[in-house]
Every structure is written in C-alpha cells, then in structure tokens.
Known about the structure:
The protein is of the alpha+beta class. It is built from 7 helices and 10 strands.
Amino acid sequence: MPIDAALALAADPRTGEIAWDHKDVQLYHLGIGAGIPATGPDELRYTLESRLHVLPSFATVAGAGSPGVIGGLSMPGVDVDLAKVLHGGQALTVHRPIPVEGRATATARIAAVYDKGKAAVLVMRTEVTDADGPLWTNDAQIFVRGEGGWGGDRGPSVRLEPPAGEPDRTVERPIREDQALLYRLSGDWNPLHADPEFAKLAGFERPILHGLCTYGMTLKAVVDTLLGGDVNRVRSYATRFAGVVYPGETLRIRMWRTPESVRCAVSAVERDDAPVLADTVVEHS
Length: 285
C-alpha cells in the first residue's frame, strides 16, 4: 500500500534550521498583493522596512522551504503519485508575534493519517521555535485521491455550518496577472503556477494562483478590515481549499465577525462566485 499509516506516524521528525530577514517578509507581502496604493500608510506597514510588521501567514513560507505538502510526500511511509495529491487545507497557530528577522528550528512530522474511503488525508505538522521558545505551528492537510479504504480512522469532519445572516463586511481584491510569478519567488516553484503547458497537463486552462497566496490575501483583508491593521491580534487561522482562482480574476471575501473570531467565505467574482476558500476562521484577541 502506498501509504503505510503506522510507519508514517512512527517516523522520526525531521528537523532543520530556517532563517529570514526583512527582504523575505517584504517579498512575501508584495506576493500577496500588498503595496497598493504604494504610498498608502496602511500599506507601508507591509512594504517599508522602517515600519515593517509581519503578517502571520508569512509562516507558510519562512525560510523559503517547500510547502508542507511537498515535505509530507517525502516522509517515511508515504509513496504516492503527485498527480493524485491536492493541498486540502491549512491551519496556523501563532504562539507569539513573528519577528521581522529571525533564525529558528523547524521540526516536521506526520501528525495524523485519515482514511476517507476513496482518499487518504495526511496532516503534516511543522513546529517552529527560536531561542525564546515556540513561534508557530503549521498544519498542512494533504489529500491523496484513491489511497483510502484500509479501514483506518476517518478523522474529524472539517466542514463547518455556514455563517448565519448577511456578512458584516465584503471586500474585493483583484489578482494581478503576474501575481503567481511574484509569489512563487517566496519558495513554491511548482510549475503549475507559471507554465501554461504544465497547467494544461494538470487539467487547468492556464496556470492557477497558489492556494497559500489566496490564504495570505484573505488574512491581510481580515487584518486590514476588521482588526485595525494589527497583525499581532491574530491567534490562529485555518481554511479549506475549495477551488482555484486564476491570475487576473477578483477575489470576493465575505466576513462575519464575533468577539473572538472572523468567519470568511472566499470566491471568484468572474466565475459566478465559484468557491475558493471555505470553512475559514481567523481567531483573534
């Protein structure tokens, strides 16, 4: 069987050192659409080194390493066809504010393997600490078609009840034609996001935007719109990737707020509000 759940769960964690500085943070922020308008004081917090703060979703690219999906496929007990793999979801817990410059230790392991019948789901957990203690924990949910059915734990349901009532805020964010090309410079070199021929082989009419780029764009919209621009209020952030979006399209981000969280639904405007992100929750102080 291509996935040996017992072996994957028992494997020793992989540990490595990562480092980043203000240029990495600025490049990431530009990749998720920051800097428009270029001289806007709210945008300068993302782009000007003397005012810089770090959007917590930077944690998904810090150190310019491969995303958790790629790391998970190279773990012991996992031998699957990349064509059957989808990035199903992402969850981030922030233990304290991410510094503009840092060095840290990243420890990655398969934290869970779920049998969904016609598919398997792997949870690749990466825990990052520096000299002062834990910084963040990233969980990447890896969906592998055709690899379920061995009678294992089905795992928790990630589907949430839709938010009730009209959203408290709705914003639209255009995606530049070159945005995937810029975002991939932060470390995700998958040709699916740049090469038209590769995208067609994968079943898409043209290259698609990285799901984690949409993830970052959505968090920035929440922080800027409902959290007063304060990135340090974010405690955790989770989503399920429900569909694709193409460069040149427009994201519609609907937000429902509670005292301690924001629920979001993200869709592609030009394709009749086709879902892009679902079950999206930002927990905050």
